Amino acid sequence: MNVKERASEKCRWFRFKIPCCQLGRLSCSFSVRLNPVVSLFSALIIWAFVVWCVLEAKAASENMTEWRRWITLKCTWLYIGTQDAWALFIVVLYFSKYSKMKLGKSHEKPEFNDATYFTMLFAAGIGIGLFYFGVAEPIWHYAPGHYGNRYYARYSDNQQAQDAMNLTFFHWGIHGWIVYVVVGLLLAFLSCRKGLPMTM
Predict the structure, then answer these.
(1) Measured distance CA(42)–CA(38) in Å, rounded
(2) How far apart are the first and last CA of the chain?
């Protein structure tokens, strides 16, 4: 049994087959494998939220609008600060002794060179989003009203346009990439190097 199989067996799984159809001697079925802890808790939370939104639609809309407004006003500094902290963490990691560590096994060779790997990550991660929102997002932040810039009335047109561009650069610049980098490194390290499954 290899490392990946041993790690996979440490997790709690439910495995079962659901018969689908019979075509002559050929039988079709779906194999289902799930982690009961993650699946049940997430399903309970999601369905409780859905039922609340359906039964109390007006109250849910008002409450969620108020929650979003409160989070935006009170926690924007936390969002920006954590992005800066993750950026600093990645820079420190890059210049540390761990920068040379492979994300795969020690004996494995990379399947792609750096340029190809970067191109795939860029295209799959933010390429299409940047293509679309590179134009739409500055306009959205420049627009007045509920969904635009909340400080719209405070500045001149030039300052409003500059703020819209600054927000767009924040979302699609280094800080936007940092989230992908941190999560990608964590998943690659645990899955490709330690052999753990891509689930809890």
Answers:
(1) 6
(2) 20
